[in-house]
Amino acid sequence: MASTTANSTVPAAPPIALAIAGSEASGGAGAQTDLKTFHQLGVFGCTALTCIVSMDPEHNWDHRFVPVDPQVITDQIEACATVHTRIDAVKIGMLGTAATIDAVDAALEQYQFPNLVVDPVLICKGQEPGAALDVDNALRAKILPRARVTTPNLFEAATLAGVDEITSVEQLKDAAKRIYDLGVPNVLAKAGPTLGTGTALDVFYDGETLEVLEVPAVGTERMHGAGCTLAAAVTAELAKGAAPLDACITAKNVVSASVNPGMHGNIPFTYVYQGFYRG
Ligand SMILES: Nc1ncnc2c1ncn2[C@@H]1O[C@H](COP(=O)(O)OP(=O)(O)O)[C@@H](O)[C@H]1O
Ligand SMILES: Cc1ncc(COP(=O)(O)O)c(C=O)c1O
């Protein structure tokens, strides 16, 4: 006779994180990456899609960008906020248009979610710099001040800090401080491998602690989805109750594990796979 084993232990419900982000069809970045990262870190993920991005094989993998109707974004956030009894943390990824920012701003005002992580995606890898700059001011004025943590890359950090360029660790530290002065209590300004240190280097600043977070760089290439993975991992860790600096340290380890050995698609960037991470 077949026997069954009764499991009397009911696992605790996982924390819940919401990603308000774009869809990147190939699964390398955006909401797809956020969900995979949340799952890998033991957090239940839900999403409100802000746009649909499909890379164009005929045109140098440019991003074909289709915004989601603002009312549909509002509806998705409402569904997440009301279906779940609580949302423990929220990641903001690509917003892309001023109308999207207005819809997200209104929803954030309404629901007052805790632990907002803003990845200020002003531009995707491969996009022309001018393409997303029109949303810069709206993002800075409406979304950024709501963030508990923000994770700008080098270009975004320079833009938000109002400096021409960042070419040294000292300039990156200065930019992190300037972004803190905009009203964000925790800033993780990312250089990755681009400052020639041989490491993947980011700077954390919370008004008191100024910490250079460095791990060995995996190769010298930048990676598709690394920024999304990092911000999603910070979000997941905050959802679990981690302090911001600890969440950032764990998130860098998640990124490092995700790119080793990594994946190569046909685009000129390496993909990340969060399933390699073992916490
Ligand atoms: N080659 C690499 N090896 C290890 N970590 C990396 C590498 N490239 C980037 N990172 C890390 O990935 C995260 C995202 O960085 P980056 O690629 O600059 O952001 P974004 O995707 O927003 O442009 C950062 O923590 C950065 O240090
Ligand atoms: C929908 C979406 N969000 C975010 C990003 C940013 O990705 P990354 O993590 O490489 O900065 C991209 C880049 O393609 C994207 O398509």
UniProtKB/TrEMBL annotation:
Signal peptide: none annotated. One of its GO terms (biological process) is thiamine biosynthetic process. This is pyridoxal kinase. InterPro entries: HMP/HMP-P_kinase_dom (IPR004399), PM/HMP-P_kinase-1 (IPR013749), Ribokinase-like (IPR029056). It is an enzyme of class 2 (transferase). Belongs to the ThiD family. It comes from the Bacteria. It comes from Actinomyces glycerinitolerans. The keyword Nucleotide-binding applies. Its EC number is 2.7.1.35. PANTHER family: PHOSPHOMETHYLPYRIMIDINE KINASE (PTHR20858), PYRIDOXINE KINASE (PTHR20858:SF19). It catalyses: pyridoxal + ATP = pyridoxal 5'-phosphate + ADP + H(+). One of its GO terms (molecular function) is pyridoxal kinase activity. Residues 25-260 form the Pyridoxamine kinase/Phosphomethylpyrimidine kinase domain. GO terms for cellular component: cytosol. Catalyzes the phosphorylation of hydroxymethylpyrimidine phosphate (HMP-P) to HMP-PP, and of HMP to HMP-P.
